[in-house]
């Protein structure tokens, strides 16, 4: 692709982005030094002005002020904002999905699926607004009632990553709002336009629902903006999605001011394939989990632990599928794998592959750059590497489409391999043996926050709590009782008697 053609394509994408923003009701941002880049060509769609320290401080103050009234609004009434947001997201699913494709490089099916995930969590949160349940416990003292109640926490700071530029924000924001919190969002500096679109839709939803639009604030910029939220004592909860390195910085700084953290960090996810597995089913699941989103999901399958009796036939199936995957512009029909987000992703992938080969790995297929999209766009073929052992590079997360395959001989050894990494997000086993499945799901099986049977590691539904253990951070978002992270618990004792007995039988007379 010539430079002139790349520039023309970038202009077309820029015009497309401007039209999408207009249809979403977003005015083009004021120009500034923060680029909104598309990984499709590597060119800029727009430029924005980053939030200054004073602007971030003012945004937090507006959120803190709005919280004082928002917390007293009944939860089912607060849900009206989320209900209206869900309707606007459904109305604009195509436009917002295409904007995700332009900024994050996802193929349209995945981008629309991400917007659907936003709609789904809104529906979940609406129902949750009538189920913020406490408990009543029996008191040991006669004439007393013992109970717990849940109350809004305060300002929630949401720091999100590029790979899910809208869904993770919605996971946090929909629940935080129905729980009575206000939100300050710092999106990835890589995807600022999708953030502007979501912010606009939410504030519109608030106005149309008769609520204060100041319950949601948006700040844009680099890591310094996020650090300001991390250090601000007015931010009761920092929900941060990103790398383990980022988590190591965020967690102690929030803890130092006795704030709360909800961390969703790295994943080095594995699937165990047993001799009884349906290899055709496993291969289909493996290919999507490993190559989908160009390997740029926290739940991407990165390690394949296969019984020695079936590793050959399974890798043949996966390699054949990999060779048929169409890599290219995600807007083109039939493309299944789009670009890496930037050059750092590409260089990290190449460095990891080189280390794997030095450790005795065999590159079965993939790994090469796909040319023809311009020097600033980075397309790669998903790589399949057979490894003799779980070396240091295999134990690290490389945010790119590399799948390491390792053999095993007995299930206990496979589980040891599986758990022998610092991360603990998602996992899977492929088997038709119920004992093997139950062993994997048991307390001494997978040590991850997500453990699946006969499906891949990615594609979690919003009904279940999402998150992981160990260096993944321990956070839980989305479904189940994840709402509790956004509220504070109070234990209440009510004395309705005329006496004043003390607990534990203590007498003080």
Automatic annotation (TrEMBL):
The keyword Oxidoreductase applies. It is an enzyme of class 1 (oxidoreductase). InterPro entries: Ald_DH/histidinol_DH (IPR016161), Ald_DH_C (IPR016163), Ald_DH_CS_GLU (IPR029510), Ald_DH_N (IPR016162), Aldehyde_DH_dom (IPR015590), ALDH7A1-like (IPR044638). Its EC number is 1.2.1.3. The active site is at residue 264. Residues 35-489 form the Aldehyde dehydrogenase domain. One of its GO terms (molecular function) is aldehyde dehydrogenase (NAD+) activity. Keywords: NAD, Oxidoreductase. SUPFAM superfamilies: ALDH-like. Homotetramer. Belongs to the aldehyde dehydrogenase family. This is aldehyde dehydrogenase (NAD(+)). It comes from Nocardia otitidiscaviarum.
């Amino acid at each position: 692709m010539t430079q002139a053609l790349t520039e023309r394509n970038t202009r077309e994408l820029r015009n497309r982005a401007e039209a999408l923003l207009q249809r979403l009701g977003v005015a083009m941002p004021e120009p500034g030094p923060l680029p909104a880049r598309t990984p499709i060509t590597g060119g800029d769609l727009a430029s924005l002005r980053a939030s200054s320290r004073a602007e971030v401080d003012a945004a937090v103050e507006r959120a803190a002020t709005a919280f004082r009234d928002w917390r007293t609004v009944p939860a089912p009434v607060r849900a009206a904002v989320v209900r209206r947001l869900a309707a606007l997201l459904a109305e604009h699913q195509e436009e917002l999905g295409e904007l995700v494709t332009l900024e994050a490089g996802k193929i349209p099916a995945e981008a629309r699926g991400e917007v659907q995930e936003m709609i789904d969590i809104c529906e979940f949160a609406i129902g949750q607004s009538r189920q913020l349940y406490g408990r009543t416990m029996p008191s040991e003292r006669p004439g007393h009632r013992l109970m717990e109640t849940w109350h809004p926490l305060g300002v929630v700071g949401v720091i999100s990553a590029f790979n899910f530029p809208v869904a993770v924000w919605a996971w946090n924001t929909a629940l935080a709002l129905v729980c009575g919190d206000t939100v300050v969002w710092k999106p990835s500096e890589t995807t600022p336009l999708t953030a502007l679109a979501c912010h606009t839709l939410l504030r519109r939803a608030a106005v149309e629902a008769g609520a204060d639009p100041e319950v949601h604030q948006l700040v844009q910029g680099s890591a310094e903006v996020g650090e300001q939220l991390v250090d601000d004592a007015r931010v009761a909860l920092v929900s941060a999605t990103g790398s383990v390195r980022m988590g190591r910085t965020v967690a102690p700084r929030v803890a130092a001011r006795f704030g709360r953290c909800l961390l969703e960090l790295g994943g080095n996810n594995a699937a165990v394939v047993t001799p009884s597995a349906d290899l055709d089913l496993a291969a289909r699941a493996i290919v999507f989990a490993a190559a989908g989103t160009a390997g740029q999901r926290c739940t991407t399958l990165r390690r394949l632990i296969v019984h020695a009796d079936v590793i050959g036939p399974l890798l043949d199936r996966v390699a054949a599928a990999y060779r048929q995957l169409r890599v290219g512009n995600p807007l083109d029909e039939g493309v299944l794998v789009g670009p890496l987000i930037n050059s750092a992703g590409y260089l990290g992938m190449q460095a990891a592959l080189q280390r794997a080969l030095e450790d005795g790995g065999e590159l079965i297929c993939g790994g090469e750059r796909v040319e023809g999209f311009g020097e600033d766009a980075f397309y790669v073929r998903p790589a399949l590497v057979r490894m003799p052992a779980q070396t240091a590079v295999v134990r690290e997360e490389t945010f790119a489409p590399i799948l390491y395959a390792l053999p095993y001989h007995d299930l206990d050894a496979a589980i040891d391999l599986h758990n022998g990494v610092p991360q603990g997000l998602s996992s899977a086993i492929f088997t038709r043996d119920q004992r093997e499945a139950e062993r994997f799901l048991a307390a001494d099986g997978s040590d991850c926050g997500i453990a699946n049977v006969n499906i891949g590691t990615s594609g979690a539904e919003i009904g279940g709590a999402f998150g992981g253990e160990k260096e993944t951070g321990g956070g839980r978002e989305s479904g189940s009782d994840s709402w509790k992270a956004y509220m504070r618990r109070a234990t209440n004792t009510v004395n309705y008697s005329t006496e004043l007995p003390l607990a534990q039988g203590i007498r003080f007379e």
